[in-house]
Design brief:
about 475 residues, alpha/beta, ten-stranded mixed sheet, 14 strands, globular
């Protein structure tokens, strides 16, 4: 066991919380003063990305430090095989006391229950907002109350009972603000007296896009469930435009009300660390398993490789080593989290983990040769509810290249002839909202060739198998 002074790690993750719904990221639609405390007293990452923008795969990547084709969790239908290596197992074996509280979403029973934790209590599947059930060390129990508040209370209770002579890893995973966006009673009327601003791309017509963008079933005006998502039916007599606006307000206000509970939770956890006198010794991370479309491009949900879905909020406070008010545009990925925590704990990073420690960046120095491109792959081809095409691609500091390869789910290497493969290319410097697909623009021919070469290099580096390209 290592004997050097090692930090506690409080890893807080929400579900579907887009960074542009946090005031420290410049939100135009809400304020998050408690989350801002972490950013103001630590470091904010402007370019933290997920490698697959959907719940279970991102969670598996965070635990294992491996891309989904290697950790076995490509979709929300896949369970995590807990026999493989995870960073909580390594920390636990090296003397950390460990706990997982909240949303797991990686399966239950057999080899799928949480491993590497001294204590765990997790919601079944997506979980419930009100009077939720939890699997507490495998035993199903129900608790009265609101999920965000209960997860916070359970987290503080575990911290109260911890061995104060040993470092801890606490993974506090909120269900919120995942669909169907049911707020706590105390916030039920928040925003009633205002209209939330619409995003810049709310009226996107997908004019230059692939069929994948046009056919995705995530549109505010047509794909939401009135009673589940909006809790009401639209008023009679509205024009289509008026109804779209009405639907957006119903959706976004409930979403932000759920975020308000998360922000309150963060404040309670930070106050606890202060009360215990351990704030200086504790790494506090706040992130979300992926981003989310908040009406951007007229959508809700995630999955697609566009910025609002791809980008994860990522703010970190560790007063001993991170300068307050730091900000970086260095590219971070969810697969980097395990290597970073192990680095701080003084535990060797297994070769099978594919991410890199972010410690130098946290401390103000981006390592020479740090990545300037990242690889993304979404596997759930034409799922029943969202109709999103399977695709992979890369994002560099300036460009994004996406390949919708038309592969039918479960038939690897087989091309769906009804949906021929398509490419999209975006110049993020000239087109930050990704409205103009320039893939067929001759001006970008050389850039396209270079990006395809980089795509293939990254696929080889992360040991993924490309689908045969059809130009």
């Amino acid at each position: 066991m290592s004997t050097n002074r090692r930090p506690n790690i409080l890893f807080i993750m929400s579900d579907d919380h887009a960074s542009h719904a946090m005031s420290c990221y410049g939100s135009r639609i809400n304020q998050t003063p408690q989350l801002d405390r972490i950013a103001d007293e630590g470091i904010l990452f402007d370019n933290c990305f997920c490698t697959n923008s959907i719940c279970s795969p991102s969670r598996a990547a965070i635990l294992t430090g491996k891309y989904n084709h290697l950790n076995g969790v490509k979709s929300i239908e896949d369970e995590l095989d807990g026999r493989q290596m995870t960073f909580p197992k390594l920390l636990q074996a090296d003397g950390y006391q460990t706990a997982m509280i909240g949303k797991w979403h990686l399966g239950h029973g057999g080899n799928a229950d949480p491993t590497g934790f001294d204590f765990w209590t997790v919601v079944p599947g997506q979980g419930e907002y009100h009077d939720p059930h939890f699997y507490e060390m495998g035993e199903l129990k129900q608790f009265k109350g609101y999920a965000t508040e209960l997860i916070t209370d359970f987290s503080i209770d575990w911290l109260e009972k911890r061995d104060k002579d040993r470092p801890f890893l606490l993974m506090c995973h909120h269900k919120a603000p995942h669909r169907p966006w049911q707020p706590a009673e105390k916030y039920a009327n928040l925003y009633d007296d205002i209209d939330i601003p619409e995003p810049e791309t709310f009226y996107d017509d997908y004019a230059t896009r692939s069929d994948a963008a046009k056919e995705a079933k995530m549109r505010i005006e047509s794909d939401m469930n009135d009673l589940v998502d909006l809790k009401a039916t639209p008023p009679e007599g509205l024009t289509p435009l008026e109804e779209k606006k009405w639907r957006y307000q119903r959706y976004i206000k409930d979403y932000l009300r759920c975020v308000a509970s998360i922000d309150e939770s963060i404040g309670n956890l930070l106050d606890y660390l202060d009360k215990e006198g351990i704030a200086e010794d504790t790494i506090v991370v706040y992130t979300s398993d992926q981003g989310f479309f908040l009406g951007d491009h007229g959508w809700y949900d995630k999955r697609l490789m566009y910025e609002e879905s791809l980008r994860m909020p990522f703010i970190v406070r560790y007063p001993r080593e991170i300068k307050a008010g730091s900000r970086t545009d260095a590219m971070a990925l969810n697969v980097d989290f395990p290597a970073t925590f192990l680095d701080y704990a003084g535990v060797p990073v297994p070769e099978e983990m594919q991410g890199y420690s972010l410690r130098s960046i946290w401390e103000g120095q981006t390592p020479e040769g740090w990545r300037t491109s990242m690889y993304y792959r979404y596997w759930m081809h034409l799922d029943e509810h969202h109709n999103v095409y399977s695709h992979y691609g890369i994002r560099t500091e300036r460009y994004k290249l996406i390949y919708y390869y038309g592969e039918a789910l479960g038939t690897s290497g087989s091309i769906d002839e009804n949906r021929p493969p398509e490419w999209e290319l975006y110049d993020l410097e000239k087109d930050p909202y990704e409205l103009n697909n320039v893939y067929h623009n001759e001006e970008y021919a050389d850039i396209t060739r270079e990006l395809k070469q980089e795509l293939h290099r990254l696929q080889k580096e992360v040991q993924d198998e490309p689908v045969e390209e059809i130009e």
